[in-house]
Specification:
Oligomer: single chain
Bound molecules: 2-acetamido-2-deoxy-beta-D-glucopyranose
Order of helices and strands: HHEEEEEEEHEEEEEEE
Number of domains: 1
Shape: globular
Number of helices: 3
Number of strands: 14
Helix content: 10-25%
Largest sheet: 8 strands, antiparallel
Radius of gyration: 19 Å
Length: about 260
Amino acid sequence: METLWAFLLLTVGLALTSPVENSKASLMYPYGTDQGDTKNPKSDDGASSEITITVPFTFYGKKYHSLYVNNNGVISFGMNVSQYTPDPFPLDRATPFVAPYWADVNNVISGDVLWRQTQDPALLSRATADINLYFPEIPFTSTWALIATWDHVAYFGSASKKVNTFQAVLIANGELSFIMLNYDDIQWTTGIASGAKPRTGLGGTPAQAGFDSGDKINYYNIPGSRTPDILKIAETTNVRTPGRWMFQVDEFVTGVTTEKSDCLE
Ligand SMILES: *[C@@H]1O[C@H](CO)[C@@H](O)[C@H](O)[C@H]1NC(C)=O
């Protein structure tokens, strides 16, 4: 009994003294091969093969039935992406992008790019609760989610131990669609072919975050994109939760604190 109390006190004590950084990890939806994730091959500028999705994802009025999870921090529709230096949205090409952190990842050096689509009831309840919390005026129940995670990924040309961990969660019910971007830990912004220093992963043309529907009208660049400030993205938010950005994208709406508009740029 005394041992049990000692254990409980120790557990509570540890929970109370946990470092603040741990709060970011709790934003992340569960990921890993033990969760049923598929890992992208180790390949610089690589991608998944085409992923057929079981519930269509509506992106500004167009329904998509497949997508690609690209190593360089982008989910794309219609075509895979190997471009490693980001361009600002809107892009000239009509390939829709969801870009949690578009930059020159090299998963050969370190880290993994993982994804799964899910209709697991517990996970969908969590997704539904998150959407209902951040978009209270929209009646919504999730029937599908895709979780793509860049777990401890290095940058091209790295001569450091710096790695980034971030995630994009697509949440949909066939008609309504949402993007959730979660930033656990961001330590670098740029690969050396985009102008970074090998030892810092900083400088040059830094990462771009946001989305581009491909129609030249509906897109969003998260503030700090392609500037050194993007390193601090895990401290920013549009939904009062640092490290998380959320958007409704079946038609243009951003988080609870922002007015509806066609274009925020
Ligand atoms: C993209 O798709 C093309 C055609 O299917 C394939 O040849 C190429 O290797 C793919 N690129 C990546 C980055 O996976």
